[in-house]
C-alpha cells in the first residue's frame, strides 16, 4: 500500500532552535510509521534568532524538503538596530515604559504594515511554487503551522484554488495571544487581523490546537472541527546524568520581563535568610535568555549570589540540565491571555523524573496536566505561604535523599502517540 503524501508548510525547521521547531520536527519523524509520507516546505534563507545544529539529527536523509527564498523585514530593520531587531524577532517585547523610540516605531510598523506578521511576503511566491508542485505530484493534503500565522494564508489560497484537504495547526493563538496586544495596532489593522483569523478558521477542513483553552476560544469563532493535540516528549538519548549535589532549582527557557514571579523570589530570599543550611545548599540555575527586569527583581531580593546564569544551550544540553536538577521551575506570565499556553518543555520536564514547581494564572491547562500526571505542583502568584511550605518540604526530601516524583499516565504525551492521533485526522 502506497503511503499518503502530505505537504507540511512550516517556518521553523532545523537549524532553527527554540521551542517552535520541535512540534513538527517530531511529527515528521514519526509520520512514516503510520503510512504517511511527509514533504516539508520551508524558507531557503530564514532569519532564525536562535539556531541549534543538534536538531538536524532528527531529520531523515530520506525526507523531501522543499525550499524557496523569503524576504524578511527583520534583516532590513537590523541595519538600524541589530539588537532591537533580534529581540523583537524572538517575540521579546519590552515593557512600554522601557521602549525606545526605535522599538516603538518597529512595533508600530510590524503590527500595522506586516499583517498578519513579518513573513507575509513569503505567501505569494510560496503559493505560486506550491500550486505547480502539488498538481505535478498529486498531493491532496496540506498542513500549515503557525505562528507565523502568515503561513496559514498559504494554506488558505491553496485550498481556494485546488480544493484540497487543509489542516491549520495553531501552536499558539492568533489575535488573543499576549504580545498581539503590544503591537500598537490601529483599528483598521486590528480588524484585518481578526478578519484573516476568522477566514482561516472557517475555511480549513480541520483546525488543530495545542490546548483546551484555545479550542474553547476558537469554537466561538468557527463550527469547523477542532482537535487538541498537545506538544509532547520524545525519547532523548543524552548520556548518563548525575543529580546535582546542591539543592538546585532550574528554569529552562526564556524568562521574559513579565514572566517574573515576585512571590517566588521573596520565598527563596526568606528561606535563605531564615535557614543557614538551606542557604548553603541552594542554587538557582537559569538556562536560557533572562530579561534585565527579572535579574533586577532577583537582585532586589538578594539572590544574585545564588544564581548560575547559564544562557542559551542546545536542546540536548537543556535535557541534561532537566535531568540533573533537583527541582524544575515552570513559570508563565500571570495573565488571562496565557491560560492557553502549554510550554513544550512541560512534557520534557514530566519525563525527566524531577519534581516540577509551576507558577501561572488560574485556570491554566498546565495546572490540569500536572494534577493529571502527578508530576508537580502548581501555584498562583499570590501563594506565598503554600509555595514556601512546598519548597521547604522538597528541601527536606532532598536532605533525606528521597526527592522524586511519582508520575502516572505519561505515555499519551509521547511524540509517537501524538503523531498517531494526527495520522487519524489525515
Task: Explain what you see.
This protein is of the alpha/beta class. The chain folds into two domains: 4-233 and 417-425, Rossmann fold; 247-400, 3-Layer(aba) Sandwich (Rossmann fold), CATH 3.40.50.2000. The protein is 39% helix and 15% strand. The chain has helices at residues 22-30, 73-77, 82-89, 101-113, 123-136, 150-162, 187-203, 212-219, 262-274, 276-281, 292-300, 315-324, 345-350, 365-373, 384-400, 415-425, and strands at residues 4-9, 36-43, 64-68, 141-146, 165-170, 206-209, 226-228, 247-252, 282-287, 307-309, 327-331, 356-359, 376-379. A seven-stranded parallel β-sheet has the order 3-2-1-4-5-6-7, with helices on one face. α5 crosses α6 (150-162) and α9 crosses α15 (384-400). The two termini are 16 Å apart. Mean pLDDT is 90; it is low at 76-82 and 88-92.
Amino acid at each position: 500500500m502506497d503511503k499518503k503524501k502530505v505537504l507540511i508548510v512550516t517556518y521553523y525547521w532545523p537549524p532553527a532552535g527554540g521551542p517552535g521547531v520541535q512540534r513538527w520536527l517530531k511529527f515528521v519523524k514519526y509520520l512514516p510509521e503510520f503510512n504517511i509520507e511527509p514533504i516539508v516546505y520551508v524558507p531557503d534563507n530564514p532569519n532564525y534568532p536562535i539556531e541549534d545544529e543538534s536538531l538536524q539529527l532528527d531529520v531523515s536523509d530520506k525526507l523531501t524538503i522543499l525550499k524557496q527564498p523569503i524576504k524578511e523585514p527583520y534583516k532590513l530593520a537590523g541595519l538600524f538596530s541589530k539588537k532591537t531587531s533580534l529581540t523583537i524577532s524572538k517575540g521579546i517585547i519590552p515593557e512600554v515604559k522601557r521602549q525606545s523610540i526605535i522599538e516603538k516605531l518597529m512595533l508600530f510598523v510590524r503590527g500595522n504594515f506586516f499583517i498578519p506578521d513579518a513573513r507575509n511576503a513569503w505567501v505569494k511566491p510560496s503559493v505560486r511554487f506550491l500550486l505547480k508542485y502539488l498538481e505535478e505530484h498529486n498531493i491532496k493534503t496540506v498542513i500549515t503551522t503557525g505562528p507565523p500565522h502568515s503561513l496559514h494564508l498559504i494554506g488558505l489560497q491553496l485550498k481556494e484554488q485546488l480544493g484540497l484537504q487543509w489542516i491549520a495547526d495553531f501552536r499558539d493563538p492568533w489575535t488573543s495571544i499576549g504580545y498581539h496586544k503590544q503591537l500598537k495596532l490601529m483599528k483598521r489593522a486590528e480588524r484585518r487581523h481578526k478578519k484573516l483569523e476568522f477566514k482561516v478558521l472557517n475555511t480549513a477542513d480541520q483546525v488543530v490546537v495545542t490546548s483546551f483553552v484555545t479550542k474553547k476560544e476558537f469554537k466561538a469563532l468557527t463550527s469547523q472541527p477542532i482537535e487538541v493535540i498537545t506538544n509532547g516528549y520524545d525519547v532523548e538519548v543524552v548520556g548518563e546524568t548525575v543529580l546535582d549535589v546542591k539543592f538546585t532549582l532550574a528554569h529552562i527557557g526564556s524568562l521574559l520581563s513579565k514572566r517574573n514571579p515576585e512571590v517566588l523570589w521573596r520565598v527563596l530570599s526568606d528561606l535563605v535568610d531564615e535557614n543557614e543550611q538551606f542557604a548553603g545548599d541552594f542554587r538557582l540555575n537559569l538556562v536560557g535568555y533572562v530579561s534585565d527586569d527579572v535579574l533586577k527583581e532577583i537582585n532586589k531580593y538578594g539572590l544574585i549570589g545564588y544564581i548560575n546564569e547559564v544562557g542559551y544551550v542546545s536542546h540536548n544540553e537543556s535535557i541534561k540540565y532537566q535531568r540533573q536538577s533537583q527541582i524544575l521551575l515552570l513559570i508563565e506570565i500571570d495573565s488571562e491571555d496565557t491560560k492557553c499556553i502549554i510550554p513544550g518543555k512541560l512534557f520534557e520536564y514530566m519525563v525527566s523524573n524531577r519534581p516540577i514547581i509551576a507558577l501561572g494564572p488560574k485556570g491554566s491547562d498546565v495546572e490540569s496536566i500536572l494534577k493529571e500526571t502527578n508530576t508537580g505542583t502548581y501555584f498562583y502568584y499570590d501563594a506565598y505561604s503554600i509555595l514556601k511550605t512546598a519548597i521547604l518540604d522538597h528541601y527536606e526530601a532532598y536532605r533525606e535523599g528521597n526527592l522524586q516524583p511519582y508520575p502516572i499516565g505519561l505515555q499519551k504525551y509521547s511524540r509517537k502517540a501524538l503523531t498517531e492521533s494526527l495520522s487519524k485526522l489525515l
